[in-house]
Design brief:
The chain is α/β, with parallel strands linked by helices. It has a single domain, classed as Decaprenyl diphosphate synthase-like (Undecaprenyl pyrophosphate synthetase). Helix content is 41%, strand content 14%. It contains 8 helices and 6 strands. A 6-stranded parallel sheet has the order 3-4-2-1-5-6, sandwiched between helices. Strand 3, helix 5 and strand 4 form a beta-alpha-beta unit. The protein is globular and about 60 Å long. The mean pLDDT is 95.
Amino acid sequence: MDDGRRPRHIAIIMDGNGRWAHSRDLPRVRGHEEGIQSVREVARECARLGLIQLTLYAFSVENWKRPKREVEFLMRLLERFLVSEREEIEENNIRFAAIGRLHELPSFVVDELNRTIEMSKHNTGLTLCLALNYGGRAEILDATRRIASLVREGKVAPEQIDETLFERCLYAPEMPPPDLLIRTAGEMRVSNFLLWQISYAEIYVSSVCWPDFRREELHRALEAYSKRVRKFGGLQETNVEG
């Protein structure tokens, strides 16, 4: 694949950990543990290919509704991931980032999250962004509240509100829009993920569950993306502009 047909930013809805475990008569948590291996391999390959960003939907605002023991396990698993992957992040020149209502996460997660972000902030390769306690509607609401505050403070007039201002109030205004949105486990929905940013993203649905989504599956998605014609509402063929 030449650079002109390669996405700059891939966003992934990592689905199917529980189904993967159930099909093997294993506890659901084993699916989450195995999914970490997929995160590592996919991030490593995206870094090798020279992509700008990989954003992974790791924990949604709706996921708090899951059984308390599973949520506690996921938080501890996230804490271990943030510590154990630091060497991998450094070796691959990855800059780590996160989006979402991060202040609502347990303090032990926030502490390790901040350490990993600080440690990697000068790296110049792939940005690996985890969406944590994240929801697309929540992000839009939070951005709207920020704009309302600016108007109340007299810093912005209502007629000055446009897409550029709105994007500056999102969680990560520097984030390029995703070119490719991947969903695993065969589900056909976007699940409240990056609702503003994926307006023109190409969508690829993989039938495999996330723990089985490795380098080969990533390349299948990239191959499918390379054959798409991206028009952005116009008629001229474009492949990389987002």
